[in-house]
Amino acid sequence: MTVSIIVNGDEVAFDRRPSVEDVVARALADVDGASGGRGIAVAVNSDVVPRSSWATTPVDTGDRVEILAATQGG
Description:
The chain is globular, with a radius of gyration of 12 Å. The chain is of the alpha+beta class. It has one helix at about 20-30, and strands at about 5, 10-15, 40-45, 45-50, 65-70.
């Protein structure tokens, strides 16, 4: 069963139904110098998912996941 979701505007396929934690882990693996998840906020279908719920919040085919990282600067 392939699950296809949209992550920050790009289609991403998983071989099983992922959790928000799985989606974030894959996204961070693709980024050099990843912060280990610090300063990250996640929304699924425009609903913010608290970090404490990432491991238990499933993502399904067609869901839109936005992963936002805090940045410093002025």
